[in-house]
Amino acid sequence: MAGRYPPSPATYLRSRSPLLLLILSVVGSSFIFFMFSFSSTSHSTPSLYPTSPPETSFLISLEHFLTRRSPGSSNPSDDTVNAAVDVDAVIRLDDLVYGSERQQLLRDPYYPLNLPLRVYVYEMPHKFTYDLLWLFYNTYKHTSNLTSNGSPVHRLIEQHSIDYWLWVDLITPESERLLKNVVRVRQQEEADFFYIPFFTTISFFLLEKQQCKALYREALKWVTDQPAWKRSEGRDHILTVHHPWSFKSVRRYMKNAIWLLPDMDSTGNWYKPGQVSLEKDLILPYVPNVDLCNDKCLTDSESKRITLLFFRGRLKRNAGGKIRAKLVTELIGASGVIIEEGTAGDAGKAAAQDGMRKSIFCLSPAGDTPSSARLFDAIVSGCIPVIVSDELELPFEGILDYRKIALFVSSSDAIQPGWLLSLLKNISPARIKEMRSNLAKYSRHFIYSNPAQPLGPEDLVWRMMAGKVVNIKLHTRRSLRVVKESRSLCTCDCRRANSTKLGNVLSKRLS
After folding, report:
1. From residue 313, how far is each of 292, 378, 458 by CA, in Å?
2. Higher pLDDT, 321 or 409
3. Would you state the pLDDT for residue 25?
4. What DSSP letter does each residue of 402-449 carry, written as one string?
5. Which of 210, 348, 417, 488 could be joined to 343 by an S-S link, Cβ 3.0–4.6 Å?
6. 442 within 8 A of 434, measured Cβ to Cβ
7. What's the pTM?
């Protein structure tokens, strides 16, 4: 009768134990392997902290971008906007903006002072973007073109390649970006700013004169036909015009936009009155010509800095740069001073870099414009800049205190016999050490890179832009509601909208 009943649990386990132990062993091993794999993956190389250093070479970064991310045949059409003034499209966009901003105001107690900033990047036809980048890349190694004053054309483009570094960071997939104070949005009504990705410097230097002017006119029409431009008259649009010669033929039509500039040049040699201002525009640093002197380099070069004052560059310049010739006359041949005529190419770069790393102070006089890449070369070389440029405006001065890293000297004082050298020789070793220590801390703010780094120049651009948001919204909305007969008390250009068909329609719609 016993055979009719199932075996007891103990009997069953004893009879099945080898098989059961094998199954439990396999399951346990799989679980341990899974947990180890998960742990290894989660702690290996998160996208926010890449193990490889950022790329700071414009050429290498550009090659990587063009070969890996450049689109194929798909090309945004030139017919993406209506050539006629489409008032209804502007009104629709304005209604969407109102709805979006109202929701933000109710949801976020810190709006609109909160970060991140939201930027809409226009997808312009490739002739304004990728085609120009390819033109630069394909001609870089096969040209010896010089400007009229002897500067290498392609090196000038590198110095002013601000448009590339900002654009590449904005269009990089969010998972690969390190900057979190700015995000790209896909809906125009969500945007705080509109970024115009047109390479004005490349087109100026590498296209024939008439071809360049024609492309400028096409870009102007493309942008100003956009409903978002018409709504704000360009006040919330960002345009890089970092070389003072670029976009010159048409930029008066875009003077309301936020320009990214190397300086202001209030002398009127490069920008017409009313085109540029610190309230509207932003000063950005040049891309340095020399390599960064890192912590080890700074330590190694400490004992080698035996030159009191160093300058290498063009000794004769135009406009405000005429101070150079006077400084050369005063300083050349003095003990502890090296003044050299600059030369183009790798040899010239190496000589400038070597000289700066062996010097305590580096002379930074005005060039054809108040600014010069030499200032930023000195900063990243650990050489204390001596700035002789009365009209100079500096990048990110709302964030950075340049008194900690540079000496500012008026032109009239600098050319007095013996005055400048006496000043430098009487600066204490303790102050020199402190300023050089500050240079080491400040260098990171002037190194463009991909991916863009926190506290790098790309990051500081958006920190500075955050301070402009409310004022831009104020003038945009005011221009849309002010009626013809009202007396304008502001000094901005907002009254222009009142005489336009668009301004009249929107004023009635919003009143």
Report:
1. 19, 13, 27
2. 409
3. 54
4. GGGT-EE--HHHHTSTTHHHHHHHTS-HHHHHHHHHHHHHHGGGG---
5. 348
6. no
7. 0.82
- Concatenated DSSP letters of 459-502: HHHHHHHHTTHHHHHHHHHHHHH--TTSPP--SSSGGGGGGSHH
Partner residues linked to 364 by β-bridges: 387
Count CB atoms within 10 A of the CB of residue 255: 18
Closest to 43 in 3D by CA, of 52, 32, 33, 51: 51
In the chain, where the domains are located: 58-283, 295-447
Q: Which helix (H) or strand (E) holds 63?
A: helix 58-68
C-beta of residue 382 within 8 angstroms of C-beta of residue 392? no
Three-state SS at 368: coil
105 against 259, higher pLDDT: 259
Is the separation of the CB atoms in 122 and 197 below 8 Å?
yes
341 vs 175, more confident: 175
Q: Is the previous residue joined to 112 through a cis bond, with omega within 30 degrees of 0?
A: yes
Residue type, 265: D
Q: 82 with 89: CB under 8 angstroms?
A: yes
Task: Please say whether the beta carbons of 168 and 161 come within 8 A.
Answer: no
Residue 176 structure tokens: 């690969």
In the chain, count of helices (H) and strands (E)?
19, 11
Q: What's the rounded Cα separation, in Å, for the pair 365 and 322? A: 9
Correct CATH for 295-447 of 3.40.30.50, 3.40.50.1980, 3.40.50.920, 3.40.50.2000? 3.40.50.2000
Structure tokens at 474: 């104020």
Give residue 343's pLDDT band: very low, low, confident or very high (50, 70, 90): confident
| Interval 387-401: pLDDT, tens | 998 889 999 999 999
**Calpha distance 178→454 (Å, rounded):** 7
Q: Dihedral through CA 153, CA 154, CA 160, CA 166, nearest 10?
A: 150
Residue where the block lists tokens 């017919």: 79
Say what the pLDDT of residue 47 is: 41
Lowest-pLDDT range of 150-159, 223-232, 490-499, 502-511:
490-499
Could you tell me the two tokens for 318? Answer: 């135009």
What's CA 278's distance to the chain center, in Å?
17
Read off the tokens for 249.
Answer: 């033929």
Q: Collapsing DSSP states into helix, strand and coil, what is residue 20?
A: helix
Residue 270's nearest CA partner among 158, 446, 391, 152 is 391
Q: Residue 432: how many CB atoms within 10 A of its CB?
A: 15
Phi-psi region of 35 (alpha: psi -120 to 50; beta: other; left: phi over 0): alpha
Asked if 228 and 194 count as a contact pair (C-beta separation under 8 A), the reply is: yes
